[in-house]
Amino acid sequence: MKKVIIINGHGAPMMSMDNKRILEDVKAQLQDVEIVTLAELYPDFKIDVEKEQTRLLAADLIVFEYPIWWYSAPSILKKYVEDVFAMGFAFGPGGDKLKGKKFIDSFTCGAPEKNYLPGASGEDIEKMALPMKATCWLCGIEYLSQVGTYGSMYYGLDTQEELDAVNAKMDDHAAKLINLIKSVCHGN
């Protein structure tokens, strides 16, 4: 299997139910995947750049897993990209170290889909992926796909039926992500 690293960019992973469930499903089915939880490693936002660059150099496939917060990635994931994807490493003169790596963007949106339709926020899941797509383009990384799911918030659920519906969405998200990873790793 090719080397897969998942960067868990959830800003509060101990409070996460949706992203945690996705990552648990992935780990149960793909034991060789390395999951790096940024907020646990770097609660002070002082990212060990050399260590994280070394991780990325060893990976064939990079996956970012995170919730959309305020129409963007959480600040810990942004800080990671700002520090680790540095000029001279990921872009710019001599910055070709990630060139040719593959990338999957995996994220959840707590709000229901109706909140992302034109006239609401005006931003759909395709637009949510634009910053990551542009980052990949700049760094010569092959942006393969995205897995995005609306309505992942567990807060305020009143019935077991509502809880089951969200759990089913997260299981579906995880299954899509797992299939994408397997496809990349097995050359399909």
Which structural traits does this protein have?
188 residues; alpha/beta; globular; five-stranded parallel sheet; Rossmann fold
Give a short synopsis of this structure.
This protein has 188 residues and is α/β, with parallel strands linked by helices. The chain has seven helices and five strands.
Please characterize this protein's 3D structure.
The chain is α/β, with parallel strands linked by helices. It has a single domain (4-185), classed as Rossmann fold. It contains 7 helices and 5 strands. The chain has helices spanning 18-29, 38-41, 49-58, 75-84, 125-128, 130-139, 160-185, and strands spanning 4-8, 34-37, 61-67, 102-108, 142-149. β3, α4 (75-84) and β4 (102-108) form a beta-alpha-beta unit. α1 (18-29) packs across α7 (160-185).
